[in-house]
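ingest -> validate -> predict -> emit
validate: passed (alphabet ok, no gaps, 141 aa)
predict: started
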Amino acid sequence: MLFDDIAKANIQALKDHDKQARSILSVLYGKFKLESIEQGLGAKELSDGDCLRIIQKTIKELDEEKAGYEKANRPEKVEEIEAQKNVLSKFLPKMMTEVEIRAEIEKLEDKKIPNVMKHFKANFNGLCDMGLVSKIAKEYN
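emit:
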């Protein structure tokens, strides 16, 4: 599971004295634990879909932080954030392309937006950009 992979990578980064990887993986692991507590899972682990969602959200937050550092002309911090994004992106699966999303929507009998969104959330959580799915689904209505 992805939860275990992150925990192992965090330990390996600690052993390797990789400060960049260690810092972002520790933050991510903390977010996983917090989400697990919020969902009331207790000792159970998050699903891979939930983990992917958290990773994607963290990458988006890093992009926003990077933009701030670029504005402030802090190239060393920009490089640091890029390194952290590279560490996280290794855990992301290949995202569905627009063509694949369209093909999946074509297979559905009911192409209304709520039904399309439910289908993608249930079957492709973390594997596609839900904003893109919404945009494409609107073309069918």
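Residues 98-139 form one domain.
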